[in-house]
Structure formats: C-alpha cells, structure tokens
C-alpha cells in the first residue's frame, strides 16, 4: 500500500513537472514585449475566478480572421491561387471559356489582364471554379490541391505557411477555456478542408463567405450541390452580422490584420467588460512580407488608426515574433 | 501516508459508486421498449473504441428540431403566441395597423380571420413584430416574455413545457461525447434566448430561421438592428442546407417530429457508417396532444412512411414516455 501511494505521488509530481514545463511559456514564438504582455494580461484577467473581469467559459468567444492573420496572403489570397488551378483543370470541359474574359486570362495565370474585366467579373469566374460539385466532392478537391500545391515564392505547402505564434495563441486560448472561431472573407468550405487539422478548429467553428447551394436527390439520396453565385461575403460589416448569425454571442476577443476586420474588432471591443482586439501588422519584408496602408491585398489603414486611438494591440511582426512560420525550426 | 492512501482509495470508490448510480439509467423517463433500446444500442456502438461502428467524438454531431421535438407546439407554435403578444405591445406605436389585415385580427388574437389574408401575409406581420430593435434588445424582450407568459391550456411557463425524456436524451448524448445542435424552423434569436438555460445548448449551436439585420453605428458604437423581412427559412430542404452552412459536417443522429424534419433525417441517415434517425410521434391526447398526418401544426405524414420503410425509430409518446413534461413530478 505504501509503495502504491509513493508511486502515485511520484506520478502526480511527474505530471505537475510536465504541466509546469508546458505552461511555463505558452507563447514561446513571441518575443517579450507589449503585444505578448497584453495577451497574457487579458487572459489572466478574464480567467481569474472572483476577479472583477472574470468571464464564464461559455462566453469566452474568440474570433480570428484567416488570410494574413493565421496564414499568409501574399502574393495573392491562397484560395485565389486554388481557384486559378481549378479553372485550369475545368477548362477542357468549358470550351466557352476560350477567348472569354476574365476566364481566358485566369486560366493562363495572367491576373493583371483578368482584373481589367473588373473585380466583380473575376469573383464570378472564381465562384464558377467552385461550383458544379457536391460539398463532399469539393472538400476532396481542396484536400487534394493542398496536398500537392506549393507556394510560388517559398515552395512550401500552403498549410505550412501558417503563423507559429498564432497557432500557439489558439492553443493558449483554448487551454484557458476559450472557444476559437475563424471569421474570414475566405470561402467557408475551402477553409473547413484544413482548419481542423491545421488550426484545431472544427468545421462548425469556421465562418466564411459562401456560394449558393441546392439540395438534390441522386439515386434516392440527398446531396448538396454547389451552384454558381455568391450567397454571402463575410467581410467588413458582414463579419459582425455573420458572428451574430452563427455564434449569437459577442466575442470578447478578436484578431485580424486588415480593414476588412475592422468592424469585427469594433463589434468585439465595444461590448461591456474586458475585451481584447489585436491587429497583426505585416512589417517583416525579410521573413514574410511588409505591407499595410497601400496594399491591394490585406490593406490596413483605418484599422491602424483606430487601433492606435483605442489602444488595441498591434503586433509588429518583425519585432514581436521570434518565429514566423510553423515550418521554421523552433 | 497509509491514511492518505486509504482516504484516496475511499474517495475513488465513492466517485465510482456515484458514477454508477448516475449512469444506471440515463433515460429514466423512457419506458423500456424498442425506442429506448435503439438509442442505447446506437450510442454504445458509436462510442465503443475499436468497434466497427466507432465514431471519433469530433464527428458525433446530433441535430434536434425544437417545436414538437424538444418542447410542445400546440395549440400554436409558441413563437407565434409570442409574436401576437408582441404585436399587441407594439400596436399603439403603429396606428396604421388599425383596420389593416392581418394585423388587426392578430392584435385581437383572432388567428382564423388573420389567416384569411394568406399565410405569407401572416408571416410578414409576425416578422414585423420581431423587427425594429437591436439583437440585444430583442433577446431581453423574449426573456421578459418567457418569464411572464403562460401556456393557454396548461397555464405553465413555456420553458416548462419541454419534454423530460428529450432533456435526458440531450444530456446522455453529451455525456457520450456528442455535440448537440438545434436545427429548427423557429427563429434563431427567439430560441437562443432560452436554449442554453433550458436545454444546455449554447447560442452557437442553435440554428434556425432568421430575419434580416443591418449593422449600424449608434454613438460611435456598432449595433445590429433587426429589420423587416425574412432572410432564411430553416425548414424542409432548408435544414440540410443550414446544417452544411453552419456545421459543415453531416450529423450522425437527427431527431424530429414532422415532415419539415424529413430532409434533415434523410441527409443524416444516408451518410456512411452508423446513423440514427428518430421521429417523436404525438400519440398522447391525454398528457399532451395527439396529431400527425392531418395536423396543420407539426404534420407528420411522409416522414411516418419513410420511418417505417427505413426502420427509423418512431417514439410512441403514449407508451414510450413514462413522463412527458419536465415540470411533472418524477
């Protein structure tokens, strides 16, 4: 009995040592500084039972933009690169695309000429690349693409171009009772194909833009077919609306990197009680890309002004992040 | 040390005894019979690690209709009764409703005359009763109504007219790693006002019909305003579409009571692997209400045929449920 008790105590001690080691720095890819300190302080405040800022776990909702916040978005949104590849695959079945813009240029990968047809026409063409398959077939198409496609600059698989500090942040928040959601302008079914494996975020916690779909019977069984047309754009003012629709509860923390996230952060930080808003500022032209107010992708202009005025956290990627991509050695 | 070890062992034994007692019959409001047996058997199969039907917890999605499945829906959907009460409150601000149908009759509670204007006109009028307030104001309106309104027949608060066997089922599924969702034709924000407290289902797991909304700035802060108009009807073929939109994963179990749930059950039970579909059949005219193929509320006709043909579980409320309402003594 004594031996048993000792073994038991030893294993308890061991578990505590392990827990100590793991939790000693949950944000090890973050350099010490105001950004990291603001995260640690906020989480401590809302999780301190009996404290003035305590928030019960069910209300610890945190929402994250995806492109430029959880993974890179240069030189173009990755889903845009997927859509171009998909148009190339589908082109032989669509002789009508030949000579018709913006399809003809997109299939050639010439986005400059394609955009001369107007942004709306390009978006319609990209939406066409996502249609004509069932939702389950589409998931497989995305998974297959992610398994083989490589980023044009780094030659890395796209799912390795996720930010190590943000992965740690997701894990840290969840370990503290938060429920983490993606709320992104990206297509919801594109993101769901990798969000669970890559971010630990299950499909029901991924909110995004979406195309139209219909329910059809095939051989007596229902299928959900993706059809042409855009149903909802989850960007700008669409983000608080989508949060209300899908979550029905105002987040207490929100994370973005562009003006498209501004309304989500405003919605989050104008609620009562302790709130946390953070912009990732792309300042690292060497390890990643440097862009903000003048960028066509991930423009951060008004957001930067409001973050400064309201004291939101702005991550200086160059100085705040010890490591950028999850694929880099620790 | 020995005393410590003994105390420890004693407390382990006590915990096990307590667990034993709680799990001895997780469905105590269900009579023994094929319905109860089918639930227990399904849950055992999908949770047996290493078994042929094992489903990992992340994929244990269960969806429940609300009206007629989790709580009663007679003599009218409870939200309909709420909307009529709300129209009465709002009527003084809307002199234009006087003499205008279906408003005039609805405000008088005369639904028969109101429906002579057509179902669509009535739905529009009911939608008007939900508009003109922010989402947060609306939640308070619903909570206040639920706290004071009484059911016309039983005089019970509406949140006590939930089915005890279904509450046990929700708890039992969650204890077995399931994530439980509401997927109902009812208004999502109406249901969210009580779903967490009444069913243990947080707002982000409540899917329903919804009106339109807009994001507005008030005193420099964003609010989400409910405006007239219906955005989405979560009924019939809308249910699988909504499940795909919100959950992005096909449920392995679905629970309904009417033909409006049929497509949800078809979508659920036509997936690969172990699946479970159940209809609550309202057969108890004494303790509740008896209705099915010819009812204007909660019509169950085609669903009953397919349930029989496909071997889905059909709950005979009169014989399968020992207790109906949560408010009854155990």
Overall description:
2 copies of one chain form a homodimer. Chain A has 13 helices and 7 strands. The longest helix of chain A is centred in the N-terminal third of the chain and has 23 residues, at 2-24. In chain A, 42% of the residues lie in helices and 16% in strands. Chain A has helices spanning 2-24, 34-47, 78-90, 103-107, 111-115, 119-130, 135-148, 164-175, 188-199, 238-246, 262-269, 302-310, 317-320, and strands at 61-64, 179-187, 206-218, 221-232, 253-256, 276-281, 313-316. By secondary structure, the first copy, chain A, is of the alpha/beta class. The N and C termini of chain A lie far apart (44 Å). The first copy, chain A, has a 7-stranded mixed sheet, sandwiched between helices.
**Main sheet of chain A?**
7 strands, mixed
**Distance, first to last CA of chain A:** 44 Å
Judged by helices, strands and strand pairing, the structural class of chain A is: alpha/beta
Classify the oligomer. Answer: homodimer
The radius of gyration computed from the alpha-carbon positions of chain A, rounded to a whole number of angstroms, is: 22 Å
Helix content of chain A: 40-55%
Largest interface: pair, residues per side: A-B, 40 and 40 residues
Low-pLDDT runs of 5+ residues of chain A are: 1-21
Give the strand content of chain A. Answer: 15-25%
Number of strands of chain A: 7
Write down the overall geometry of chain A.
globular
Mean pLDDT of chain A: 92
Strand arrangement, major sheet of chain A? 4-3-2-1-5-6-7
Number of H- or I-type helical stretches of chain A: 13
């Amino acid at each position: 009995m004594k031996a048993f008790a000792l073994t038991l105590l030893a294993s308890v001690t061991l578990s505590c040592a392990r827990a100590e080691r793991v939790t000693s720095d949950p944000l090890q890819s973050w350099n010490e500084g105001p950004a990291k300190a603001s995260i640690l302080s906020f989480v401590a405040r809302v999780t301190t039972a009996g404290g003035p800022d305590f928030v019960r776990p069910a209300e610890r909702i945190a929402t994250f933009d995806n492109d430029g916040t959880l993974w890179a978005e240069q030189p173009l949104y990755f889903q845009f690169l997927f859509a171009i590849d998909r148009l190339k695959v589908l082109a032989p079945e669509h002789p009508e695309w030949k000579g018709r813009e913006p399809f003809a240029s997109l299939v050639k990968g010439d986005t400059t000429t394609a955009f001369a047809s107007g942004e709306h026409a390009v978006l319609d063409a990209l939406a066409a690349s996502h249609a004509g398959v069932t939702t389950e077939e589409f998931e497989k198409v995305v998974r297959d693409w992610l398994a083989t496609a490589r980023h044009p600059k780094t030659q890395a698989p796209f799912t390795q171009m996720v930010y190590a500090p943000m992965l740690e942040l997701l894990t840290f928040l969840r370990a503290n009772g938060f429920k983490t959601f993606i709320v992104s302008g990206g297509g919801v079914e594109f993101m769901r194909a990798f969000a669970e494996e890559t971010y630990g975020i299950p499909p029901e916690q991924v909110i995004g833009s979406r195309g139209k779909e219909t329910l059809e019977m095939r051989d007596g069984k229902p299928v959900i077919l993706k059809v042409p047309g855009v149903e909802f754009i989850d960007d700008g003012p669409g983000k608080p609306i989508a949060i209300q629709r899908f979550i029905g509860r105002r987040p207490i923390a929100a994370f973005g990197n562009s003006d498209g996230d501004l309304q989500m952060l405003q919605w989050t930080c104008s609620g009562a009680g302790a709130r946390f808003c953070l912009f990732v500022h792309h300042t690292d032209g060497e390890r990643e890309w440097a862009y903000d107010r003048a960028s066509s992708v991930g423009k951060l202009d008004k957001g930067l002004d409001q973050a400064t005025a309201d004291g939101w956290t702005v991550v200086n990627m160059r100085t705040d992040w010890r490591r950028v991509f999850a694929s880099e050695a620790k």
